[in-house]
Amino acid sequence: MKPLIPFVDLLAQYEELKDEIDSAIADTIRNSAFIGGKNVEDFEQRFSRLLGVKHCVSCANGTDALYITLKALGLKSGDEVITTAHSWISTSEAVTQAGGRVVFCDTTADTFCINENLIEEKVTNKTVGLIPVHLYGHPAEMNKIMEIASKYKLWVVEDCAQAHMASLQGKNVGSFGNAATFSFYPGKNLGAMGDAGAIITNDDNLAEWISLFSKHGGKGKHVIEGINSRMDGIQAAILNAKMPHLGEWTTARRNAASYYTKKLAQMTEISSPISRNEAFHVFHLYTLLCNRRDELRIFLKNHGVETNINYPVALPFLPAYAYLSSFANQFPIAYSNQSRILSLPLFPEISRDQQDYVCELISRFYAN
C-alpha cells in the first residue's frame, strides 16, 4: 500500500521538470551520447563552477568516487584512515577496498558528524588521512579538521554524498580538503535517475590521475591500469536539467526543516536537528533523536507516514567490522544514537499540510 506521505517523493520532482528531463533524455538518445560526450563534459564544468573548484571528474557512483580518490592519494596496505563511526558503509568500505585500514572516531552529540575534538587521539604513526562526512547535510567542523591534518601531515577527503551546496563560514564543503566525493543517487539533494558520482579537487595532478584511473588508465594509451567507472550520458543530461533548480530546492528543504523544528519544539521526548553557528545545513535528511523510536516508527507507518533510520547500526558494530572488536564505551554517542535516530519525510515538494499531519501524529503518540 502506498503511504499517504512518502519518505521522499521523486515522482513529484520529475513531474515538476518533466518537459526538461524528457527533452534531455531524448536528445541523448537522438545523439547516441550514452558514454562520455557533451552531456558529461557540461556536467563536470557546471558542477565545478557551482562549487567554486578547479576540477570535477565524474564517475559511476559515490562509492567509486571514494575508492578512486583513495587510490589516487596512494593508500596502501597498513595505512590507517580515520573516519566517523556514524555513516553509510560506503565511507569505510572504500578504505578497506583501496587497501587501507579504517579507524573509527565517535561523533558529536548535536550534529551527528565526526567529533573533531577526538580525532587527534586516534592518530598513530600509520595514519595517512582523514575522511570527514557531512552527514545528513550538516558540515563537519572542517577548520579544526584541517588544522589537525596540517599538524600531522595528513590528507583529507570530504565525503559530501549528502551535502550538495552545504557550507561552513561561507565556504562550500568539498573545497576544504585535498578532494571531495559526491553521490547523485536518486534520493540525494541533486539526484540522477540511476547511479552517478563525482570527485572534485583543486589539485591538477590529482585530477589528472583520477581521470585516467576511472577510464581504464587513459583512452587508447592506458598509461596506468585503471577501472571502468564512468557517468553515463543520460544521467549527466538529467543532472544538467536539475542543477539549475538545486538552489531553490535547498531553500525549500531548509524551510521545511525549520517548520518541523518549530512545530516539534515543545516536545520533550524528541530532539530536533540543529545547525551549528556559521554552518549552512542543507537537510538531505531531517533526523530526530527520539524516545521509543521503534514504537513511534510503527505508529507513523500505521497512519500512512513513511520514515527511515539512517543508520540503524553504527559502523563499528556492523558484522563487517567484528574484527575490530569494538565496544559501546569506545563510541558512546554513535552507540546511543543508533537506537534513537529517526528520519522524517522531507523533500522540496513537501506541503505544510503534510508536515502538520506528521507532527500531529508524533504529538498524539507521545500524549498516549
Overall description:
- By secondary structure, the chain is of the alpha/beta class.
- It has 2 domains: 10-105 and 112-244, Aspartate Aminotransferase, domain 2, CATH 3.40.640; 246-367, Aspartate Aminotransferase, domain 1 (Alpha-Beta Complex), CATH 3.90.1150.10.
- It contains 12 helices and 13 strands.
- Helix 6 (142-152) links the parallel strand 4 (127-131) and strand 5 (155-159).
- Helix 4 (62-72) packs parallel to helix 5 (90-97).
- The radius of gyration is 21 Å and the shape is globular.
- 45% of the residues are buried.
Tally the helices: what do you get?
12
Report mean pLDDT, rounded to a whole number: 97
- CATH architecture classification of the largest domain: 3-Layer(aba) Sandwich
CATH homologous superfamily grouping of the largest domain: Type I PLP-dependent aspartate aminotransferase-like (Major domain)
What is the alpha-carbon Rg in Å? 21 Å
Distance between the termini: 26 Å
Which shape, going by the Cα principal axes?
Answer: globular
Number of strands: 13
- Pick out the low-confidence regions: none
- CATH C-level of the largest domain: Alpha Beta
Q: How many independent structural domains? A: 2
How would you write the strand order of the largest sheet? 1-9-8-5-4-2-3
Strand content: 5-15%
In CATH terms, what is the fold-level topology of the largest domain? Aspartate Aminotransferase, domain 2
* SSE ordering: HHHEHEHEEHEEEEEHHHEEEHHEH
SS-derived structural category: alpha/beta
The major pleated sheet works out as:
7 strands, mixed
